[in-house]
Amino acid sequence: APAAPQPDRSDVRSGQSVLLEWAGASGLGYRVEVASDPGFRQRIAEIRTRTSRLEYRPNQPGPLYVRVSSIDANGLQSVASEAIELRVRPDDRLRLLRKPADGTTFETRERTAVVGFSWVEPPGGGPYRLEVSAADGETEQTMMERASERPEARGRFRPGRYRWGVYGPGGEPLFAEPFTFRVERTRIDLEVPSRLRWPNPRRSRD
Prior knowledge:
This protein is mostly beta strands and about 210 residues long. About 0% of the residues lie in helices and about 45% in strands. The protein has strands at about 5, 10-15, 20, 30-35, 45-50, 55, 60-70, 85-90, 95-100, 105-110, 115-120, 130-135, 140-150, 150-155, 160-165, 180-185.
């Protein structure tokens, strides 16, 4: 059986990723189980991975229990590792991005779409810096940085997938994790009749 997974941090916030790593067994892959009770009767997630590491993002505060099993070439599963307990506390930072919501898709008939952003204003107010980066490639590329005194901003974006976040005074991020949105070009299909009948004008004879 694999060794118990080890988190890369002891302080885990709800909505913040934690890296889990383990060792001690090899095979075609691993099965990671996450539950809200030590007996794993109330499973929250079951994840398959080929590597001995997993980046997991708990979505709610409270105790979580994680264990790992290896899977061999015949698809047989090993005995599960010892379970570890993750203490996930509520996110004590403002992270409610109001617009657009995480995973929003914008459709446009144009080459670009106008996206409006707004967020909760923390005590003390701005100034703010909105940062939007492309998230389609292997490396993120910053597409827009915009300063704002108010908790809102607008921008134009080509089709693609993007991440966005906001920084407050001193460059501190207001939110634990960036949100994502997507811009898609709307395709307009033209209906073409299967048979066109053209008039056959009579030719005048001399």
